[in-house]
Amino acid sequence: MPLHLVSPFDREVEAPPGDNRRGTISTRHWRQPLRDICFILIKAGAYLGSIYLAVLGLPLLFFLLLAGGDLGLFFMHLGNLAAHYLAADHARQAGFINELKLGLFGVATLIVIWRLPRFLDDVSAALAPRKEVS
Predict the structure, then answer these.
(1) Considering the entire predicted model, what is its pTM?
(2) For the segment 68-90, what is each residue's pLDDT rounded down to a tens digit?
(3) Domain presence at residue 132
């Protein structure tokens, strides 16, 4: 016996002819927009997640380029930055954090602007009505 599962969302409530009850709801009217919204939310989450990872990876790339690819020099620069940060007073630490946040936010904004046309093209192409080939 094959397994055939039909969920309540897969079957449509049908009223007999002549029955004009107001309680019958067709699921076709709301399922497609709900699918589209879920698809857009998933794609937007992946888009923003990739931007977030790219922005967090840029300081690492900067310090690796500064060190010439040598991990010993990389950790020396990172240790120097950490020592100066810990030696600074609270006002300078707060100023550094604010400048860092502003810089990373600016870089994230530039990456979003750079990648937004491709994201919109991908979403619009995926949501475009498909022509049935017969």
Answers:
(1) 0.64
(2) 888 999 999 889 999 999 999 99
(3) no
User: Computed over its alpha carbons, how large is the radius of gyration of the chain?
Assistant: 27
- Number of domains observed in the structure of the chain: 1
Residue 93 lies in a domain: yes
List CB contacts of 30: < 8 A, sequence separation 6 or more: none
State in Å, rounded, how far the first CA of the chain is from the last one: 32
Is residue 116, in this structure, part of any structural domain at all?
yes
35 assigned to some structural domain? yes
Can you tell me the distance from the alpha carbon of 107 to that of 114, in angstroms, rounded to the nearest whole number? 10
* pLDDT tens-digit map of 45-67: 999 999 999 999 998 898 899 88
HSE value, Cβ hemisphere, 13 Å, CA-based, for 121:
5
Tokens found for residue 37:
């919204």
